[in-house]
Every structure is written in structure tokens, then in C-alpha cells.
Amino acid sequence: MSKSKFLYERALHVLPGGISRNLILRDPHPVYVAKASGFTVTDVDGKNYIDFSNNVASLIHGHAYPPIVEAVTEQLKKGTAYMLGTEIEIEFAELLTSRVPQFEQVRFVNSGTEAVMAMVKAARAFTNRPMIAKAEGAYHGSYDTAEVSQDPNPDNWGSYNNPKSVPHVVGTPDGVLNNVVVFPFNDAQTTIQILNNYKDKLAAILIDPVPHRISMVPAQRDFIYAIYDWCKAHNVLLCFDEVVTFRCDFQGAQENYPVKPDLTSLGKIIGGGFPIGALAGSKKIMDILNPRSTNYRYALSGTFSANPISMTAGKIAMEHYTQEKVNYLKALTERAKTQILDAAKSVGIPISLTGMGTFFRLFFTHPAPQHYRETYLYEQANKQAIKAALDYLYENGIIAINSLTFMPSTVMTEKEIDRLSEVILGMFKHVKPLIKEWR
Ligand code: PMP
User: Fold this and answer.
1) Residue 86, SS3?
2) Partners of 149 in the beta sheet?
3) Residue of 20, 54, 55, 116 with the most ligand 1 atoms within 8 Å of its CB, for mutation
4) What pLDDT, on a 0 to 100 scale, did the predictor assign at position 260?
5) Is the CB of 139 under 6 A from ligand 1?
6) Distance, CA 148 to ligand 1 centroid (Å)?
7) Which residues of the chain have pLDDT under 70?
8) pLDDT at 55
9) CA 423 to CA 192: how far, in whole Å?
10) CB of residue 150 inside a 6 A radius of ligand 1
11) Cα gap 389→365, rounded to integer Å
12) pTM of the predicted model, to two decimals?
């Protein structure tokens, strides 16, 4: 019996489903890690993988990045959490605010989920309104409000022009559902029509500019402009979830849109491999978190918020994610995309690669699904092909995110990209008979 199988059987007794996060579940059992370094993960049975998931887009410099290991080791000896301030939290906030002009102030929290939650509550507190609007199918973490209509299906999603607010978890209170408005991503006209019904009650429009679960098709500029103008006209805050997309460019995906969000939530790469989240925005809005301000409306605390380990690792990760490194990672990503498109052509299968800058998602269809309902139908029709593709990649030493999404890291070279393309070529031949038309 493999060590991973043995561990899974032990895990089944003490962890529901044998897991602590759904993503690691694989057939017939999860893979358990012995160690990881750079782009390589070694499992407990001694097999090596090139890691293109990077813990779901959270390790921009790969595993055990030496400058982070060194600095965190030093900090560990000095303590890991205090009920007192630290200089490193100020330094890291200075770094983030100097990186992105619209980040005038930052509040650190412990996860992307918490960052989105803080963003929604801050918007409510600032506007004194209860509702938010979000795109159907968008994933924003596991906060009640943010997970509404994360995964609806044809039996409950309602009409395209007026999507229903569908609970993600059984027992979600009506109060939550009634305060979340759902719109179709990248359809400005329909979205504005929907928003107009709630203009006096909306606090925030929540947007992930390159939403992974919807399709990873970037938000069109016209879509963002339309929502931005609508928000300004009705005093609603435009809130970007850049928990994943901050890696897209030096200033995150928002660098690619001339209009900027009022608030941004961050997470993943800004923790340098440790748990983190952050809320960033203008002083005027962030002042509602300031206990000494007359504008104070939102008391937000967290036992591990701004702990010196996450601050130390995060600061180094971001210092080292220079414009040069961003360009390097974009070039590697482009190289992978070009090779993968060529491979698909040579095998004679339709594919699309969505994403922005430094990551991409692979679909066995062309053109790519444009909104959640299309992605849902594509995934239903191609469940078998997607699973076979992932299994093939794992068998051949490549870890991808389960949606067939790839997150290269700055420690990779053209060699790892070329190996990825080579394995994907074999994978295309393997899954070709399983690809199903869905439109
Ligand atoms: N927002 C987005 C866009 C995400 O992809 C995620 C996590 N994958 C989150 C929020 C939540 O982050 P976390 O898992 O750190 O809570």
C-alpha cells in the first residue's frame, strides 16, 4: 500500500472526508506531501511533481523561498504573535501603499475570506446600506454574504436577466440571501438593469476582475466602466477582490483598468506562504476603521492579524515581486500558452486559454465560456475529460488546480514550461476522445 493511501485511511477516522480542505481530495485518495522546495513538491512515496498550483496561487516564488525561510526563521526566534504593535506591520503597509496609489491605507487580516468580509462590512458601514451585488458564480471565499450564488445550477439559478440569489450552504438565512443581488458577469446592460432596482440599498458591487470559477475571462473594460459610472452616480462603492489577481501585474489586475476601485481585498501571495488577508483603500473610507476618528463605524480585530511571521514573509515576497519579475513571469506564461495552443492544433482539438498576465485556465472548447452558466454547462458535459486530464498531469508529475488552471512561479524557468507543454501534448492525445460538445 502506498504511504498516501495509508495516511488517507487514518485521516478518514478523524477528519470529515479525510480532509481539511476540499481541494486536496483526489481519486482514489489525496496525495500527501513530504517536502517542497522551489517548483518541486515531493510526496510521501518519493514522487516529484512540478507544482503549477502553488497552493492555489499563493506562492509567487514557489516553495520554501530561501530569503523568506531565512527571515522567518529569525523572526520565529523572536516570537510569533504579540498583543502589541510591530515595526514590520508598518513597513509592510508602507510597501503596499507605495506600490499602488489607490491603496492609501491597509488593514491586515488573516485570510482572503476575512479580507472580503471586511471589505463588505466596511462598505456597508461607510454607506450605511445593507446590500451588495456580486457576479453569478464568482468565488470570494467562505463568508456568508460573499458565497451567495457561488455555485447555482439550472434548477435554482432563475432567469439569465434576473438571477436568483442561491444559498451555497443549506440553512443560509433568508436575511443573507435577500441582501445579495446577483448579476451576469461581463454583461453591462443586464447588470445595470438589475442594479437599478436596488440603487438606494446597495453598499457595494463586488468584482473579481478575472474570476477563476466563472471562466477566468478578464472583465471587459466597458463592463468595468459601466459599473464604475453607475457606482459613482449612486454613491455605491466599487470593491475589487484581488485575492488571486494581485499577481497579474505589479499593481494587480486593477493596473489594467483606467478606473480604480474604492476598496480592494488582498490575500494569497501577499503572505509569502503564510496566512494573510488585507483590505486596502482611500484614507477617507478606511477611516471608518479608525477608533480615534469621528468617522469610526467598524470595530475590527483579529488575534493573529498582522502577526510578525505573515508580515515578514509577505514583505519579502512582495519586495521580490518586482516589475522585472512580473514581466519575467508574464513571458513564461505567454510561452506556455503559445506552446499549448500549438499542441492542441497538432492534436486537432478545440481549446481556449483564459486568464490574465501570469496565469491561465484551460478549456476543451473554443471560444471559451463567457459567463458562469456557460462554464457550468461546459463542466457538466466535460467532467470526465477534465478529470482524465488532471489525472494524466498528476501521473506525469505536474500539479494543476482542479479546474485545469496553472499558476507558474518566479523560480520556474523555460525548462519547466517546456516540460509542462510536453506533458500537456500527451494529455491532449489521451483526453481527445472524451471531449464533448456542450453548446
Ligand atoms: N477571493 C478569491 C477570488 C479567492 O480565489 C479566494 C480563495 N481561493 C478567496 C477570496 C478566499 O481566500 P482564502 O482561501 O484565503 O480565505
Assistant:
1) coil
2) none
3) 116
4) 98
5) yes
6) 14
7) none
8) 98
9) 44
10) no
11) 14
12) 0.98
